[in-house]
Amino acid sequence: MSRTNVDQNEIAKFEALASRWWDPTSEFRPLHDINPLRLNYIDERTPLAGRRVVDVGCGGGLLSEGMARRGANVTGIDMGEAPLAVARLHGLESGVQVDYRQTTVEELAADPDHAGQYDIVTCLEMLEHVPEPASVIRACARLLKPGGDLYVSTINRNPKSFLFAIVGAEYVLRLLPKGTHEWKRFIRPSEMSDHLRQAGLDIHDLTGMTYNPLTKVYRLARDVDVNYLMHAGKPSGE
């Protein structure tokens, strides 16, 4: 499964918004707000400096550039042509070097030059937009070196996440464009854990991300009812 695990409607959503990816006041403000949390979470658990990293579903390059600034050798992959063009242009303007490629993670993992070559794989805010998230997880695992680390984030599936991530974020607070997410594609932590274990990975951590609409601040928390991050690792003996 490679190109078949791509939802063209999802790609089109982000293609249409690509020009505003780096505008912190745009529809991508939530990504700008949570990016420092995501970066610190990764960097504290697996120091980025000198690591070879692939950012799956990199979009306009917000996380990719952040990791590169911290000393990582980053490859960013996405299937959206317009977001990648924005990412490359911003990299030229900022002077931050990232290798951007239009490909699926399954295709990259099938390439012997990439399989088993990465210290870190990140797949953040992407799994809820693909038909088969388990296929993405398996491919991410194939890209990792023995002892490598995978970081994923997505949205839990329960009544609270429907209320907060769709009704609240898209219709009431208008933090995201209407239709950004489909509740049925959200992934419970237990389901994510199954995907990770079936891909041969060990689970190291589960952490939530919460948003305070009064202070407009995100923070890491124990509450995983809506947004959450997971850290998994490939056993060093593989």
UniProtKB/TrEMBL annotation:
Substrates-to-products reaction catalysed: a 3-demethylubiquinol + S-adenosyl-L-methionine = a ubiquinol + S-adenosyl-L-homocysteine + H(+); a 3-(all-trans-polyprenyl)benzene-1,2-diol + S-adenosyl-L-methionine = a 2-methoxy-6-(all-trans-polyprenyl)phenol + S-adenosyl-L-homocysteine + H(+)
An example Gene Ontology biological process: methylation
Binding site for S-adenosyl-L-methionine: R38, G57, D78, L124
One Pfam family, short name: Methyltransf_23
Gene3D superfamilies hit by this protein: Vaccinia Virus protein VP39 (3.40.50.150)
SUPFAM superfamilies (UniProt xref): S-adenosyl-L-methionine-dependent methyltransferases
Pathways per UniProt: Cofactor biosynthesis; ubiquinone biosynthesis
Catalytic activity, EC: 2.1.1.222, 2.1.1.64
Keywords tagged on the record: Methyltransferase, S-adenosyl-L-methionine, Transferase, Ubiquinone, Ubiquinone biosynthesis
Entry's Gene Ontology molecular function annotations: 2-polyprenyl-6-hydroxyphenol methylase activity; 3-demethylubiquinol 3-O-methyltransferase activity; polyprenyldihydroxybenzoate methyltransferase activity
InterPro entries: SAM-dependent_MTases_sf, UbiG_MeTrfase
Family listed: Belongs to the methyltransferase superfamily. UbiG/COQ3 family.
Function: O-methyltransferase that catalyzes the 2 O-methylation steps in the ubiquinone biosynthetic pathway.
Protein's name in the database: Ubiquinone biosynthesis O-methyltransferase
Organism: Marinobacter segnicrescens
